[in-house]
Amino acid sequence: MASRAPAASSDTAPRKTPLVPAVSRAIQLLNLLAETGQPLSLSELATRLGIVKSSAFGLCTELVAGGLLSRQPTGYQLGAHVMAFAHAYLKQTSLPQLFLSQLAARQTLPEFTVNLSVLDGVDVVYMISRPGSDPLGIELRMGTRLPAFHAASGRAILSTLPKDLLEEKLASFPRVKLTTKSEMSVPKLRKMIAQTAKDGYSIDVEEVRDGMLAFGAPVFGPHGREAVAGVAVAMNCDTATPKIQKNAISEIRLLAQALSHQLGAAA
Description:
The chain is an alpha+beta fold. Helix content is 42%, strand content 19%. β1 and β2 form a beta hairpin.
């Protein structure tokens, strides 16, 4: 499944008057290429960024030299060095390591795919995913973005947000149907989130991918009641018996609780 590009957040969105215009344009260019997911010509980049072609050429030349862009016959695309930043981010963040350690220690649902993600705007971004022994047919690679209101881990995190913040996100989430079962009704989504908050876990029934069932749970840090991340387990609907589902819900909640405890969350 292709990764979706980051929506501009308060930390990355360009200011009305950038402090360093060249840096701001470089960020916009990288975000544009991440969003399109395919090479763009110099003319296309200049047009979409609203800059002259010579400025676009200068930006691309510097970014290619730094390994952040790669020049292809059909245009420019993101370079391999972008991954170095992603790996550096994970290295300085303890949560992925704690996640893997807990999975290994607890032998959590080894037959199923288990993932860890964080909320970014109205998306969830997958930090790390451990494939299961039972082939799922979906690859949730590091950096993959999915609509938070459809993904199990996203709903788990959303269920912990203050009402006003949740309503903001409900008002702005992209109406993109990943499958025919992706819920688009705001009242129904609001009800699903409320049920998740009540139950302590979320459910995604073929909303992200046909034939996939997932259960998610929120992970808390030492401050506040808002989740800092979400964990989820995904499996094939056809083989998910009631017994398997009950065990998966229990295990994913225990995993979330163990991670929360390690992060210093209140009991």
